[in-house]
Write a structure and sequence with these properties.
With 198 residues, the protein is mainly α. It has two domains: 1-58, Homeodomain-like (Arc Repressor Mutant, subunit A, Orthogonal Bundle); 78-197, no CATH class. The protein contains ten helices and no strands.
Length: 198
C-alpha cells in the first residue's frame, strides 16, 4: 500500500483547515452578520486556534475574499438561457439561498469600511456580472426599449435577497406575489422576443 508523503499530508491538512475557516466565516455571517463575525468566532466554529487563522489568513480581508468567492461559486449556476423566465427562476433560486446573505453582508461592509472596501473591491468586481441586469438579458434580444424590464427584474431580485437576509431567511408576506409578477413580466418579454424572431 502506498503511503502519502509528509508534504502531501501537510498540504491536505492545510487545505482542510482553510476550508474549515472559510466555511466557518460563511456560517457565521449567515447566522450572526458581518459585525459579529470575528476572528474568535470563526476559530470557535472551525475548531482551530487563532494562530491557525493567522497562519492561513494573515490578512483578515483575504479570508473574506475567499468566503465571497466560495459563495459566488455556489450561487453562480448556469440557467437555461433560452427564456427570460428560466433566467428569472434560476436567479430567484440563488438569491433566496441563505448564502446570499453573505453577499449582501460583504457588499454592505465594502461600503461601510473603507479598508475592507478596498480589499473586497476586486472580489466583488470579479463576480459582479452574475448580479447585474446584463446577466438577465438574453443574448438574442437586444432592444433598448426593454432595459426597464431587465433593470426592474434585477432590482426586485436583489430586494428579495435583501429581504430574506434581514428576516432570518424567511420570505416576506408578499414575496410570492412579487415573484409571480416577475414571471409574468419575463413571460411577456419572452413572447415579444418570439414574435420579433418570426
Amino acid at each position: 500500500m502506498k503511503t502519502q508523503s509528509p508534504t502531501n499530508l501537510n498540504d491536505a491538512r492545510s487545505r482542510a483547515t482553510r476550508a474549515r475557516l472559510i466555511g466557518a466565516s460563511i456560517d457565521s455571517m449567515i447566522e450572526c452578520g458581518f459585525s459579529k463575525t470575528t476572528g474568535v468566532e470563526i476559530c470557535r466554529r472551525a475548531g482551530v486556534t487563532r494562530g491557525a487563522l493567522n497562519h492561513h489568513f494573515p490578512v483578515y480581508s483575504d479570508l473574506l475574499i475567499a468566503a465571497l468567492h466560495q459563495v459566488y461559486s455556489t450561487l453562480q449556476t448556469e440557467p437555461d438561457a433560452t427564456s427570460l423566465e428560466s433566467i428569472v427562476r434560476s436567479s430567484y433560486n440563488n438569491v433566496i439561498q441563505p448564502a446570499f446573505k453573505v453577499v449582501i453582508e460583504l457588499w454592505l461592509a465594502s461600503q461601510n469600511d473603507p479598508d475592507i472596501g478596498t480589499e473586497l473591491a476586486s472580489a466583488i468586481s470579479d463576480s459582479s456580472s452574475a448580479f447585474s441586469p446584463k446577466s438577465l438579458r438574453r443574448s438574442d434580444i437586444n432592444e433598448p426599449a426593454t432595459d426597464a424590464i431587465y433593470y426592474t427584474l434585477f432590482e426586485l431580485l436583489i430586494a428579495i435577497g435583501l429581504g430574506r437576509a434581514t428576516s432570518g431567511g424567511k420570505a416576506s408576506a408578499h414575496e410570492h406575489m412579487v415573484f409571480e409578477t416577475m414571471l409574468n413580466l419575463a413571460q411577456q418579454q419572452d413572447s415579444r422576443g418570439v414574435k420579433n424572431n418570426e
